Amino acid sequence: MLLLSLSLSHYSSNAADFCVADLEIGFQTPSGFPCKNPSFVTASDFKYSGLVTGGNTTNINKVSIIRAFVQQFPGLNGLGMGAGRLDIEPGGAISAHTHWYASEMIYVVEGTVTAGFVSGVATNTVYLNKLSKGEIMIFPQGLVHFQVNTGTETAVVLATYGSEDPGTQIISPALFGNNLPSLLVEKATNIDEAEVKKLKVLLGGSG
Question: In this structure, are residues 38 and 16 in contact, taking their beta carbons and an 8 Å threshold?
Answer without folding.
Answer: no
